[in-house]
Amino acid sequence: MPGVYFSQSQPYIFTIKHNLTIVGQTHNPDAVRLNCAFLLDEGAIFIAQNLSLAYGENQFNTIAMYNNTQLFGRNIHISHTSQDKWDCLYGKNAQISLVNSTITINNLNAASLDLEDSQLYLENTHIAGLVTKLTDSSVKNSIIDSTIYLDDNSLLEFSDLMINSNDNQSFCELYALNNSNVAGQNLQTTSSSPTIALAESNLNVNEFKPDLQNITWHFDDNSEVLADSIRPYTSGL
């Protein structure tokens, strides 16, 4: 039912080792607020719908996932309201699927999603930063704030992806490093002059906004880069 569950000043941390489903009886996810964090382990499956999860204490993720665990979220809002650098959702050997959902953080030096050896699916979802290693990501019609950082054989396949950045940020909108791959259609940035950097990685993307001439590229000779079927000029690494 709508309402606030558990104390905002002393939120619970729940360890989940069995399958769990929580569904809010409302279409407004913020009407059902759970002040808590979840640690998923030992193959647990967590299904969440029509609710918000908020954790405001230091030195813990709002959701942490290990050992072949799965998260299926629809119409949910996950937030990490502490000022520490812990990411909102961390996964290692995990599967995450988020549809019509939002992940927010207070400290912009952290990330909404930090994944290793995992699989990610986003659809109609807005998150604040993405960091992956050894992770395959599929993204549709979604927004990622600030930057996307792919490392160590990560894959990003997308359609209709926006990177919500600005002209003053000191880091690139997109990094692909160490045998990572990016492929997709319709990449937009809210910055008028974005930067994309690759090292020993591949990119094949069609349809950019802003236009290609407004994008600064940095990549090495070991990277294969095609932007609208053309290899762009690189400023080097």
TrEMBL record:
It comes from the Bacteria. This is Uncharacterized protein.
